[in-house]
Amino acid sequence: MSNLASTQPNRGWAFWCKPLLFLLVAAIGLYYVKWSPYYLKAFVAADSHSIGASILNDQQSSPWSAALAYSQVYFLAIWKAAVLAVILGSLLQVLIPRDWLLRLFGRAGFGSTLRGGLFALPGMMCSCCAAPVAAGLRRQKVSVGAALAFWIANPVLNPATLVFMGFVLGWGFSALRLVAGIVLVLGVSLVAQRVAGPEQLPEAAVDAVVEASTVNDQPFLSRWGKTLWQLFWSTIPIYVLAVLVLGAARVWLFPHIDGAMGDSLWWLVPLAIAGTLFVIPTAAEIPIVQTMMTLGLGTGPAVALLMTLPSISLPSLLMLRKDFDARVLVTVAVLTMLVGIVCGLIGAVLL
User: Fold this and answer.
1) Which of 3, 231, 274, 340 is the most exposed place for a label (fewest CB within 10 A)?
2) Whole-Å CA distances, 29 to 17, 39, 84, 85, 125
């Protein structure tokens, strides 16, 4: 990293316009898609102790009907955030200097991973909408741990979701989600970083300095269009297909809940697995769990779902298949399931 610090190209106003443009697009987009709607929804949650009906509560029995019905509701809920995510993930690669990203997130270790998690907090996206930005980070050669922390922290440590959860389910659930979420984000990311092995940061850092000091004559719109298309094509088609498949599979993934389930520990493992694989919009785990608890689901299995449903999903794992080693993604999935099970056991005792 010393090469980065010792070599500083001359940078004028034209250079600084690019990161400022990225920040402007991010702020306007997030305000429209996330910050303003969630601010208003917080008052709804406080007044009614609800943020809407469960997205799974339509009693579909046919897999084909379930796939179409769920996909329609899901994509109507997330399409704006998905479009913004692809735009930000592509702009990140053409507007933010790569040497900046490497300084912040390049080294494999706790500091870089922590910064990746903190960088995610304003985004408040679901796992699938955070995936294109995480992919953009990896394509700029940031560390595996930092990119994973950004990806997982977006849904798990979403400040708005924690507020909604407190008003709807109780502040004990929010506190457990916050503490366990920090452990999940940092712990899983650091373990996955170890699984990924050492990365070639020094060469990437030197390349970034050379790149930053070299004038790129290719028009901005041409570079952005190419990057945008590559990111879209590698993430969105498989995303849509996976959501359709999971929409059909929910007929079997989520059983009918009755009082006999209670706090049975037998349900911890299957619900943790289902929660890890299934895909939901931001904060949808709250009405899902609220409805299931009303029907008789116990606290332990409910906490397992609260941890695993938002964290990752099969579609988001598939979206990142080209940017992370398969061993890394499998490690993230297995550890997320284990964290969900452990949190369920803790929640059954404390809540």
Assistant:
1) 3
2) 18, 15, 7, 9, 12
Q: pTM for the complete prediction?
A: 0.91
Give the integer Cα–Cα distance in Å for 192 and 329: 8
Task: Map residue 297 onto helix, strand or coil.
Answer: strand
Nearest to 110 by CA among 143, 140, 138: 143
Contact 75, 243 (CB under 8 A): yes
Distance in angstroms between the alpha carbons of the first and the last residue of the chain: 47
For 234, the token pair is 């590698």
From CA 312, how far away is CA 130, in angstroms rounded? Answer: 10
Q: Are 95 and 21 in contact (CB under 8 A)?
A: yes
- Burial class (CB within 10 angstroms; exposed 0-12, middle 13-18, buried 19+) of 206: middle
Q: List the chain domain ranges.
A: 18-350
- 277 contact partners, CB below 8 Å, separation of at least 6: 246, 253, 313, 314, 333
CA–CA separation, 219 and 215 (whole Å): 11
In which residue are the tokens 């996976």 written? 242
Tokens of 193: 């970083």
Q: pLDDT per residue over 126-135, tens digit each?
A: 999 999 999 9
Torsion of CA 110, 157, 284, 83, to 10 degrees: -70
pLDDT per residue over 80-123, tens digit each?
999 999 999 999 999 999 999 999 999 999 999 999 999 999 99
Angle subtended at Cα 58 by Cα 170 and Cα 315, rounded to the nearest 5 degrees: 80
Q: Is 230 exposed, middle or buried (0-12, 13-18, 19+ CB in 10 A)?
A: middle
Q: Is 169 helix (H, G, I), strand (E, B) or coil?
A: coil
Q: Which two tokens stand for residue 54?
A: 């469960």
Q: Which of 248, 246, 298, 297 is nearest to 275 (CA)?
A: 246
SS3 for 52? coil
